[in-house]
Amino acid sequence: LIEFLIKHKLLAKTIKCKKCGNDINLNTETLMFKCRRRYYIKNDHKKRIVVRCNIDVIAKIGTWFCNSNLDVGTICRLVACFLMLQHPRQDRKQIETGIASPTTIVDWFNFCREVCVFWAEKNSEKLGGSGHTVEIDEAKIGKRKYNRDRLVKDQWIFGGYEQGSKKIFIVPLEDRTEKTLLEIIKEWILPGTTIVSDCWKSYDCLNNEGFQHLTVNHSYNFVDPDTGEKCLKVLIYIILIIKIK
């Protein structure tokens, strides 16, 4: 696990000692950086004397794992539960993580959602163009959608996923009217794009607005039996950001 975290830059393998400038390697068993190097300095009488570093640095400082009393392995299990467990999952979360406190689990899941929102906002970009296919979908935080998941709060959000490139955008949505959705689509999706959506009536205008429009009826399936098109990945991104305990 520690090697995996180092490889993906979630933990540092070496750091510089702030006292002597020496490179300190991570002790993977204690997750500590320790410097005990001996070096010379000059005292007030310009005489060389030997001093020894006595620096201890916790590897979690300045990382995702900072400011938590949980060990690294438990935090990783929490993140895995957030990403992988389906609803209902309250009992399974406590079993999988070994954490008895529901409050601790909820706090960490909130932290995970904040990171997802930050990532989505930072990585949202304009999608599509001629020859490209973009899946779009919207979800209301606080209402079941297609009976597939449970969401929180009372806010519509809207997103797009470009097939092949895996580029996305996710933005808040005031309402699902044709005017509002069309403005956002034109802002984030280039003309000539093939757009795959559900059967919401506000999307019916897309063929007349410079796009090729295909639909999927989520009430029955996520893959259209006639066109073979699917509109699932963007919904997964949205659910990932707003799913709850």
Automatic annotation (TrEMBL):
Signal peptide: none annotated. It holds the Pfam family DDE_Tnp_IS1595. Residues 126-237 form the ISXO2-like transposase domain. It comes from the Eukaryota. InterPro entries: IS1016-like_transposase, Tnp_ISXO2-like. This is ISXO2-like transposase domain-containing protein.
